[in-house]
Structures are given as structure tokens and as C-alpha cells.
Specification:
This protein is an alpha+beta fold.
């Protein structure tokens, strides 16, 4: 067996090994093992222990051990409860913080505490170690605290790098206060679904002051539907309230504000409307209701076909209108041409009439001249005879 990294190995648990990167152990009977102890060299890092056979050097397996250094930082690892319960209650595991060393490895065995920005709202609480350098803090509220109040928690651990005074490594976490459920409303992600389509239902709850209820309260188990829904039963699908919201989505186990998927609830397969409703409160004095619908596939197909036919008819009508407009434009052009021809004919007729009038006048003048000439000739003739 050999170790690679900042560690020694030994089979002795009573004395800390100060040397030894390899040991040889005898094979034991089945089911009986020899404990192997891994000792830190005092340096942060990861050591890898390799187990091989002595004769052939065949690798049987490996294990890793991480040695952490002094804590160098603390940060919020998971925000679980942001709205904590007012009126003198402890909100268990409201926030998880992680303490790490310079290599980012979790540091265990620390004392983690917090102080509040307003001790009249959140006077105290505790932080408990989980594993891997993660610590869960649980703030408590005063009896006189009320919904809507808030406080900032400064979560801290002593900084070992400072030896001349007590200095802390810190991180902050804001909380607000809420009360018990007073009023619930429900909504869906859509108003109309296809048959069997995935749907998301959300319930919103406020306390008597109109503020979001405190985190972690159970979701509305009283809801029922008047038609069969698909997926998880509606009475158990709604998860706990966080930030005043409960949904049919699946919350992540690592972060309650992250949803893994939406496919836990499905609309009915039959078309038409359906209702989700329920009663709650003291003696079921309050009620909530939401009416949704499922589209009819056959009716939708028929409507789509009718719509297509109507669009085709509109296209044909538009084409006919275009043709009529072109014909009207041609008729207008012919009318203009005819009017121009008529005007030309009228002008020609007027010219002919004017010419005829001039010819008649000339003929009359010529006739008068001929008559005068005849009279003159007659006079001359008489004189000649005489």
C-alpha cells in the first residue's frame, strides 16, 4: 500500500506517524480487515492511497483523503427559508453556509454563529455543523415580532489568520417575517390546453397582513378538479410554500427555488371546460376556484379547414376584384379615346362648314361681278349699234 500526497500511512492508531509513505500488510480471512490509518503531514491537499498485491503489483483499488487548511472564507451555500415565521418561533435550517480553506475545500469543526441587525425582530439563533464544511443556521424571532418586519443576519466564524484580536470571517443573509396562511389564490400557466397537455398550477398564499406566508408551510392539499387530470394526484402535487408560492412543479432537493421539471400535472383528455377548486380555513369558510378549458381537436381541425377555405375564397375574390379594376381601367381608356375622336370629328365638321360658308360667299360675289359685267357689256353694245 502506498500513499501519494501530503500524508503518511500506518497500522498504529496510538501514535501519530511522522514518516512512512508505504506499508505492507498480510491478507486476512474473508470478512476480516486490517485498519489502515492515514495521517496528515500538516499540509492541506489531497492524498491518494493505492492498494496493490505484493507479488504482481496488481492494483486492487484506490481511495482519496482530503486534508483541509485553516478556514479562509465563509459563504451562503443554500438559501432555504427567506421568509421566516413571526411571533416567537425558530425557523430550522433557514440557511446553509459553507466554510472553506484556501483551496476551496470545506473546513469542519468550526464554531459558526450569527448576529442580527435588529434584535427586536431576530434576537438569536444557532448554527449546527452538517458535513463537509457546511453549517445550517436557524434564526429565532421574538414574541412581539410581526409580519413584514425584516433583519440581516451576519453569519461568522473566527478568522485564524488574525492572532492579535478576535476577527471574523463573515457573510450576510437577509430575512423577512411572515405569518400563517390567511388567503389563497390559484392560477395556471395557460387558459386553454390541448388534451393531456402538461400544465403548471400555482397557489399564492398571504397572511392576515397581506404579506407572503412564512416558508416551508404545506401546499394546498384541499384542491380538487371536476374532471380527471393526468399525472400526480392534485391533492398531493402542490409542494410547500416558499416566497408565498406553491406550485405543481417538482422542487430540487438541493435548492427549493429551483424546479427539476414541470411535468407533474396534465390537463384532461376530453375537450371542454374544467374547474379546479377547494375550500379551506376555519370551518372551510373560504374558497378558491379556477376555470380552464381543453381544446376539442376535431372542432379545431374543422375550424382550421373552414378558415383555410375562407382564406382561399378571399384570395379568389381579391383576384376577381383586381381583374374588374383592370377592365374598368381599360374601359376608361377607351372612353377617353372615343371622346378625343368625337372632338376631332366635331372640329373637322366645323372646318368644313366654315369652308362651305366661305365658298358660298365667294360664289355670291362672283355672281354679282358677272351680273355687273353683263350690264356693262350690254351698255357697250347699245352704243356700238348707235
Amino acid at each position: 500500500m502506498t500513499v501519494d500526497g501530503p500524508a503518511y500511512v500506518s497500522t498504529d492508531s496510538t501514535a501519530r506517524a511522522t514518516s512512512g509513505k508505504a506499508i505492507t500488510i498480510a491478507a486476512n480471512a474473508a470478512g476480516v480487515g486490517t485498519p489502515i490509518y492515514v495521517w496528515s503531514l500538516g499540509t492541506a491537499g489531497t492524498a491518494t492511497i493505492s492498494v496493490r498485491t505484493v507479488t504482481s503489483g496488481l492494483l486492487l483499488g484506490t481511495e482519496t483523503v482530503t486534508f483541509t487548511g485553516d478556514v479562509t472564507g465563509i459563504a451562503v451555500a443554500a438559501s432555504i427559508k427567506k421568509v421566516i415565521r413571526a411571533g416567537g418561533f425558530t425557523s430550522s435550517n433557514a440557511v446553509a453556509v459553507e466554510a472553506t480553506d484556501a483551496n476551496g475545500n470545506g473546513v469542519e469543526g468550526l464554531t459558526v454563529t450569527f448576529v442580527s441587525s435588529d434584535v427586536t425582530v431576530v434576537p438569536n439563533g444557532s448554527c449546527a455543523e452538517d458535513e463537509g464544511g457546511v453549517y445550517y443556521c436557524s434564526p429565532a424571532t421574538t414574541v412581539s415580532s410581526t409580519s413584514g418586519q425584516s433583519a440581516t443576519l451576519t453569519i461568522r466564524t473566527v478568522d485564524p489568520a488574525v492572532t492579535t484580536s478576535t476577527t471574523y470571517l463573515t457573510t450576510t443573509y437577509d430575512v423577512t417575517l411572515g405569518g400563517s396562511i390567511s388567503t389563497v389564490t390559484i392560477a395556471s400557466d395557460k387558459a386553454t390546453y390541448s388534451p393531456g397537455e402538461a400544465m403548471v398550477l400555482t397557489a399564492t398564499a398571504v397572511d392576515a397582513s397581506g404579506n407572503p406566508v412564512y416558508d416551508g408551510q404545506s401546499g394546498p392539499t384541499f384542491l380538487v378538479a371536476n374532471k380527471a387530470l393526468g399525472g400526480t394526484a392534485l391533492s398531493s402535487v402542490m409542494n410547500a410554500y416558499y416566497d408565498g408560492k406553491s406550485t405543481s412543479q417538482t422542487r430540487s432537493g438541493l435548492d427549493v427555488r429551483v424546479f427539476r421539471n414541470d411535468n407533474t400535472l396534465f390537463a384532461p383528455n376530453a375537450g371542454g371546460s374544467f374547474t379546479i377548486s377547494g375550500v379551506y380555513g376555519t370551518d372551510n369558510a373560504k374558497s378558491v376556484s379556477l376555470t380552464l378549458s381543453v381544446s376539442d381537436d376535431a372542432a379545431t381541425t374543422a375550424a382550421a379547414a373552414a378558415s383555410d377555405a375562407a382564406l382561399e375564397a378571399i384570395d379568389a375574390a381579391n383576384a376577381a376584384t383586381d381583374a374588374a379594376n383592370l377592365a374598368a381601367e381599360a374601359a376608361d381608356a377607351a372612353t377617353v379615346a372615343a371622346e378625343e375622336a368625337r372632338d376631332a370629328a366635331d372640329a373637322a365638321t366645323a372646318a368644313v362648314e366654315a369652308l362651305a360658308s366661305e365658298v358660298a360667299t365667294l360664289m355670291a360675289a362672283l355672281k354679282a361681278q358677272i351680273t355687273t359685267l353683263a350690264k356693262t357689256v350690254a351698255k357697250i353694245a347699245k352704243k356700238v349699234k348707235a
